[in-house]
Specification:
This protein is of the alpha+beta class. It is about 55% helix and about 20% strand.
Length: about 200
């Protein structure tokens, strides 16, 4: 009887092996790491280029003197912030794809309205004898950042994230240009709209 109990205990221990995260679990960890700007978590869940994540972060050298830093940070967070919902997981051998619905702010109309408002303010300022290009630039950027920060419009798109299994562990592949493009889209649109 003791032998049977011992065998049952050993077998019970066998079934309690640590369960490896699924591709969906890893995708959630990865995207949450990007949202929280958690480099360590990003490294453990992916092969993704850290330079890509850094471009989503506001660095000290990114701040423009003469413009409220909190406003700049809030506008940046609006442009690069996102939410996601897992849609579907597909596994084939040691490769997987996880489709997500990515929700980001749509800043196009905010930038257009902000530029119109900034032009009016600069035109009014230009009549002042103390007008300078620096004051004009500060006014333009402050107005633009305010409109971006306050943007309410959103856009959704389906993005597929590719993963691979290494030694039984799923990780996000380095090659995920579709996701990178979607996350950086607002920055690129801003550049196009203000040129």
């Amino acid at each position: 009887m003791a032998i049977i109990v011992a065998m049952l205990m050993v077998c019970a221990g066998c079934s309690e092996k640590e369960k490896q995260p699924t591709p969906t679990d890893v995708t959630k960890q990865f995207l949450t790491a990007i949202q929280k700007q958690a480099e360590t978590a990003l490294k453990t869940s992916s092969q993704w280029n850290l330079a890509s994540m850094k471009s989503l972060q506001m660095q000290d050298e990114d701040y423009i003197d003469g413009i409220d830093h909190e406003l700049q940070k809030a506008a940046h967070d609006t442009m690069y912030g996102f939410q996601f919902t897992i849609k579907k997981e597909t596994i084939k051998d040691k490769n997987a794809q996880v489709a997500i619905i990515l929700k980001t702010k749509d800043i196009r109309n905010a930038v257009k309205k902000g530029m119109k408002e900034a032009e009016k303010k600069v035109e009014k300022l230009s009549k002042d004898k103390n007008f300078s290009d620096q004051k004009a630039q500060q006014e333009i950027l402050t107005t633009l950042y305010t409109y971006i920060r306050d943007s309410k419009e959103e856009k959704e798109q389906t993005v597929t994230i590719s993963l691979q299994q290494n030694d039984g562990v799923w990780i996000v592949k380095k090659e995920n240009q579709e996701l990178e493009k979607a996350l950086l889209a607002n920055g690129e649109e801003l550049i196009q709209l203000i040129q």
